[in-house]
Amino acid sequence: MDDDGWFLIAEFARRCRLPVSALRYYDGVGLLRPAYVDPATGYRRYRAEQLDDAVTIARLRAVGTGPDVIARVLAGGEARERALAGERRRLAGEIRRLTDGLAELDDLGRAPVVGDPERVLLEPEDVVAWPFTAAGDELAGTIRRGVATLRTRLRRRGRTVVRWGAVLPLDVGDTVSGHVIARPDGGAPAGPDKLRLPGGEAITVVHSGPRASLASAYRVLLDAAGPRAAGPVVEWYPVAASGPSTPDVTGIAVRTRAGDHSSDSPRMNASTLS
User: Fold this and answer.
1) Which domains occur in the chain, in start order?
2) What are the start-end ranges of the H helices in the chain?
3) Greatest mean pLDDT among 59-63, 159-163, 189-193
4) pTM across the whole model
């Protein structure tokens, strides 16, 4: 540092424990411009008050934060708080994804438990619904967000949920459109988010294990339904679950076309499956 408080780039890098190449990169993306560039030599010079910003940038880069978000953090004020909150949500989502991945690896050595399929006659049922369209590989996270949204809405109405679920198409593509659903105590209140699940003939099965192993239950379900499987599919999760990635019991029902009903088939609501 010279007598006027200026640092050449190498001196500045030494003090913030960064390589010179990192400072050049921060300059290139507009995050940390040198306080002065000598027009004759091209030497970059920095001020001592820029050290804190350099360290902040390095810490955010270490957790994968992008330059645009870092710029909002450096701007300070409300923009900084919103950016940091957004990054916290991003990292929390990554942790959930990695935790689910670890659980999936552990579960590969354990066979899921699938009950025997049962032919039933479903009664019509009113539920509270949250519509969604999501990429197929983001379905579990989308359903979790739907559960959180419906939980907030119903709490504001003073209602307690007794079962969570999802209405899904029979065939899953690159994107999936459906509804996250909730059956509150006392039935679904009137409103634009009310959805009626139609009654009719269905095949049901109960699966015990994580969502990633549900394909084994669908195989049993669709083998039993045969060509009469018509959809949609309704999945029901335990009320204590935070979403479908929670390892637990899941009830699944697929509607079937008319003509598959036997008079001795039990009558039931889909939400009593699991």
Assistant:
1) 6-85 (1.10.1660.10), 113-272 (3.20.80.10)
2) 9-16, 20-28, 51-62, 67-75, 77-107, 139-156, 214-225
3) 59-63
4) 0.61
